[in-house]
Amino acid sequence: MTNMLASSLRVNGWNRSFKPDFVLIRQHAYSMVPGEDFRNLVIGLHFGGVPSSNSLFSIYNFCSKPWVFSQMIKLYHALGPEKFPLNEQTFYPNHAQMVRASDITLHPHNTHSSP
């Protein structure tokens, strides 16, 4: 049994289906911008067995930046800081935990120089 990907286009009042022979993906599959979530298309291409320039698995995994960073941490531990330097980052499971009043420290700066 062959998986078939059928995408519908409405052309002149008719629905048209097609299966691409190969895809070249040149943009992120997911963005925080409203209306720019194409993960369903990546899943459909993968389900249909459509070959692509990049692994559809890797394209889908790159939809989550914390997921990518966690993979980079594994490389950092395997190769060491000399071969794979990595800037430290902190993971927060949601935005509410990022900002707490007790965590904010104000550092007043004197912008006027005194003689």
Automatic annotation (TrEMBL):
Coiled coil: none
InterPro entries the UniProt entry points to: PreATP-grasp_dom_sf, Synapsin_ATP-bd_dom, Synapsin_pre-ATP-grasp_dom
Cited SUPFAM superfamilies: PreATP-grasp domain (SSF52440)
Pfam families given in the database record: Synapsin, Synapsin_C
GO process annotations (BP): neurotransmitter secretion
Highest taxon in the source lineage: Eukaryota
A GO CC term attached to the entry: synaptic vesicle membrane
Ranges where the Synapsin ATP-binding domain occurs: 54-103
Protein name, per record: Synapsin-3
Domain Synapsin pre-ATP-grasp residues, every copy: 14-52
